[in-house]
């Protein structure tokens, strides 16, 4: 097994494992791992390749939620369709920005995601909102904004989509999680498609990353059932990891500014 193949499988496995173990937020590690562990030279190629891997992982998880009846299909399809338009626009903008600047913004985003993970999650009772013009307009706005952010950074965006769905529709959290996965997959595919048109997707590497992610995800889900009582501790540990990686991303991107 070559060093690159081992790094790709291992990095994909780590992303899949964290997604299975702690849920949302795990895919944000894909781009840094592709850059600094696998050795992808250009940030834009790492983002395009990572977006495809994120989409595959989301589809795999979406299937299990759909079988359990956690998906609100009409909301999922509308949100995914509208958000994909935003993802295409966001990815087009992201490709036009210098790689070092984009990585700096990515590092700042990681700090935000890490901060959200350590905040206490209050379980609030929600009531489904009536399907009227106001609810449709809010859902459309949230979908486009979340899709644009997902496309710009090449991330899954579940940490934005889940609260956005709850805010717009009033659906229960478990349904928002299941429904969001179709949107995450669609946004990832739209972003990967945009980057692929510019030749910024390494297809073989993406395949290796996805294979590792599937295996890691299965292990992560098994571990999650055994460690369910330590959920808050796991979130804090993973948030700490995100902070460390964010610091390294910011350090490297600032270094690139200096050298430039």
Task: Give an overview in words.
- This protein is an all-alpha fold.
- It has one domain.
- It contains 10 helices and no strands.
- It has helices spanning 3-22, 30-38, 43-67, 73-95, 99-118, 133-153, 158-169, 173-197, 203-226, 231-259.
- α4 (73-95) crosses α6 (133-153), α4 (73-95) packs parallel to α8 (173-197) and α6 (133-153) packs across α8 (173-197).
- It is globular.
- The model has no long low-confidence stretch (mean pLDDT 85).
- Belongs to the 4-toluene sulfonate uptake permease (TSUP) (TC 2.A.102) family.
- One of its GO terms (cellular component) is plasma membrane.
- It is found in: Cell membrane; Membrane.
| Element order: H for helix, E for strand | HHHHHHHHHH
The count of strands amounts to: 0
- Supply Rg: 17 Å
Number of helices: 10
Mean pLDDT: 85
> Kindly, what is the distance between the CA atoms of the first and last residues, rounded to a whole number of angstroms?
36 Å
| Helicity range | over 70%
Number of domains: 1
**What structural class results from the helix and strand content?**
mainly alpha
Q: Tell me the overall shape.
A: globular
User: Which regions contain 5 or more consecutive residues with pLDDT less than 50?
Assistant: none
Report the portion of residues in β strands: under 5%
Report on the biggest sheet. none
Which short descriptors sum up this protein?
260 residues, mainly alpha, 10 helices, 80% helix, globular
Strand-helix topology:
Blueprint lengths: L2 H20 L7 H9 L4 H25 L5 H23 L3 H20 L14 H21 L4 H12 L3 H25 L5 H24 L4 H29 L1
Helix pairs in contact: 1-2, 1-9, 2-3, 3-8, 3-9, 4-6, 4-8, 5-10, 6-7, 6-8, 7-8
């Amino acid at each position: 097994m070559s060093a690159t193949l081992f790094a790709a499988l291992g990095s994909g496995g780590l992303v899949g494992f964290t997604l299975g173990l702690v849920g949302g937020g795990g895919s944000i590690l894909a781009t840094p791992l592709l850059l600094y562990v696998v050795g992808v030279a250009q940030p834009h190629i790492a983002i395009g390749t990572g977006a495809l891997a994120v989409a595959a992982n989301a589809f795999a998880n979406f299937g299990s939620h759909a079988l359990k009846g956690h998906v609100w299909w009409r909301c999922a399809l509308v949100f995914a369709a509208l958000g994909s338009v935003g993802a295409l626009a966001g990815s087009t903008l992201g490709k036009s920005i210098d790689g070092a600047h984009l990585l700096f913004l990515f590092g700042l985003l990681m700090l935000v995601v890490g901060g959200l993970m350590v905040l206490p999650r209050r379980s609030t009772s929600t009531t489904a909102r009536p399907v009227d013009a106001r609810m449709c307009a809010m859902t459309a706005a949230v979908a486009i904004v979340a899709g644009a952010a997902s496309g710009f950074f090449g991330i899954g965006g579940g940490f934005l989509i889940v609260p956005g769905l709850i805010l717009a529709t009033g659906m229960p959290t478990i349904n928002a999680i299941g429904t969001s996965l179709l949107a995450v997959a669609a946004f990832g595919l739209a972003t990967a498609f945009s980057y692929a048109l510019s030749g910024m997707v390494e297809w073989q590497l993406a395949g290796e990353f996805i294979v590792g992610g599937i295996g890691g995800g299965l292990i992560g889900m098994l571990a999650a059932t055994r460690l369910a009582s330590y959920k808050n501790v796991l979130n804090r540990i993973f948030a700490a990891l995100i902070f460390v990686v964010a610091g390294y991303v910011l350090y490297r991107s600032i270094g690139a500014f200096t050298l430039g």
